[in-house]
Amino acid sequence: SQKIEQNSEALNIQEGKTATLTCNYTNYSPAYLQWYRQDPGRGPVFLLLIRENEKEKRKERLKVTFDTTLKQSLFHITASQPADSATYLCALDAAGNMLTFGGGTRLMVKP
Amino acid sequence: NAGVTQTPKFRVLKTGQSMTLLCAQDMNHEYMYWYRQDPGMGLRLIHYSVGEGTTAKGEVPDGYNVSRLKKQNFLLGLESAAPSQTSVYFCASTGSGNEQFFGPGTRLTVL
Description:
- The complex is a heterodimer.
- Chain A is an all-beta fold.
- Helices cover 0% and strands 59% of the residues of chain A.
- Chain A contains no helices and 11 strands.
- In chain A, a hairpin with a 4-residue loop joins strand 7 (62-67) and strand 8.
- Chain B is built from no helices and 11 strands.
- The A-B interface holds A 4, 8, 32, 34, 41-46, 49, 89, 91, 93, 96-104 and B 4, 31, 33, 35, 40-45, 48, 50, 58-59, 90, 92, 94, 98-105.
């Protein structure tokens, strides 16, 4: 069966360091992968989309990689700030504009 | 633009009661979705719609019904609520850009 795995344990890092979150998947051949941010009590907010033919994508302090051989995406936040503390969700296209989400990883950035 | 709005924000039901959750979007999006989010389970797709007058089942459709009579509205109904339906419900919509826009969520408790 199709499966998306994100580290369910919280990631704690110091302000200014680079945070790296992992999304692994099995039994998928997604055309694209997305990352969302979710703050407590709020809906997810779209951050980045990377397509299967793209190795890397950047947006300000964010960087996403997509390795279709390893079936893995890495999400990096450079120069992290306490305001980056949130839960980050990865999502893969299932078919026809539908997404399947991972369980999310909570990031805590300490000042 | 208000984006995606959901009503109500909170609701408490007794087992067996019925209710309807309303989702509205003002972005002229064709696709709309209903998800539920439970601790440790991530977002799971309940039902979705690819256009006005169309609906389809997602991953966890049992116990729910939906209607899309107008393009901007997507209704989620619970005919006979059960404690297992206690969850946070999110509506989302998308146009041609693949990224989904989420509402603020409805927190439902079934006693």
